[in-house]
Design goal:
307 residues; alpha/beta; eight-stranded mixed β-sheet
């Protein structure tokens, strides 16, 4: 009994501090895509693996960032939608996910480590695909969007557009409190568990340096005066406070922000709930951000589809 009582907060703490390793459960071929694999090395020596999809005549490029406890394979349906619209797509595994290397000591990373992965991938894009200079946007899903928005205004480069899908732009400790409150409904010893949950949520937030990351993201969006931001939220998303997330951009973002509420959307299902609307909204945002289409010379060789 005592061992079980101690095990609960330890297990919950580990769950929030050390993310589960997201595996690649689908392949590009499952979505009719042919990838160009790449590997980059981060500033702290980790090897990050990803895929590039290059349709012929692409008019822009989108770097897609997956959710926490997921992998790049979870973004393949997004890639398919974007490739069908003539956009090149880059997707990759954050550290410890899919095919990417994991750090030896997670406690040194907190929530900040994946920012180094995104930095390395973007540097690779600049070097390997210079024809897309000035026409590279970010699309972040859930936690991947937190990384995208924290990176966009502090990386020393300009992004014409950032698309945020199901992104909890909220204080992490508050989100954990809400999540744990929901999970303990109907549980035994609710008052004792409530105290344990409160302590664990605050300990996890401190350990991962979630508070400083939130402030870093706030500074980042204040520097996005020349960036269009499209925020996509599901009307039925219950993982976080959607209104609080929208308020974050409304109060702090220096650039124009458009919010699209997907009536049937839930967390990370917006592109499935309304695929046509999703493609239309994202393409409209990117066309406005990129401006007139230049001639982009990329050796695609019709690699966007198979069959």
């Amino acid at each position: 009994m005592i061992r079980s009582a101690w095990r609960y907060p330890v297990d919950v703490f580990r769950r929030f501090v050390w993310p589960a390793r997201g595996a690649d459960f689908a392949t590009p071929e499952d979505h009719g895509l042919v990838p160009e694999p790449f590997t980059v090395t981060t500033s702290d020596g980790l090897r990050i693996r990803g895929w590039v999809f290059l349709p012929p005549g692409a008019w822009g490029m989108v770097v897609v960032c997956h959710a926490r406890n997921a992998s790049k394979s979870r973004t393949l349906s997004h890639a398919r939608l974007l490739v069908d619209q003539g956009l090149a797509v880059v997707t990759f595994d954050f550290r410890g996910c899919g095919e990417s290397a994991a750090p030896r000591r997670w406690w040194r990373d907190g929530l900040w480590g994946p920012l180094k992965d995104l930095d390395a991938v973007v540097r690779h894009v600049d070097t390997a695909h210079p024809g897309f200079a000035g026409r590279v946007a970010l699309l972040g899903c859930s936690f991947g969007g937190n990384m995208a928005i924290a990176h966009a205004g502090t990386a020393g480069r300009h992004y014409p557009a950032v698309v945020l899908d199901s992104v909890p732009l909220v204080r992490w400790v508050g989100m954990l409190d809400t999540l744990l409150r929901r999970e303990r409904r109907g549980a035994r010893f609710r008052r004792t568990r409530a105290v344990a949950d409160l302590l664990v949520a605050r300990a996890a937030s401190l350990w991962t340096r979630a508070g400083p990351l939130y402030r870093h993201a706030r500074r980042s969006v204040r520097a996005l005066s020349g960036t269009r931001v499209l925020q996509i939220v599901g009307a039925r998303d219950s993982l976080f406070d959607v209104e609080d997330s929208c308020r974050f951009l409304r109060e702090h973002c220096a650039g124009p922000v458009t919010v699209w509420r997907v009536p049937a959307g839930r967390h990370l299902t917006n592109h499935l709930a309304d695929p046509d609307g999703y493609a239309t909204r994202v393409v409209s945002c990117l066309r406005d951000a990129f401006g007139p289409e230049p001639t982009i010379k990329e050796d695609a060789h019709d690699r966007n589809t198979v069959g």
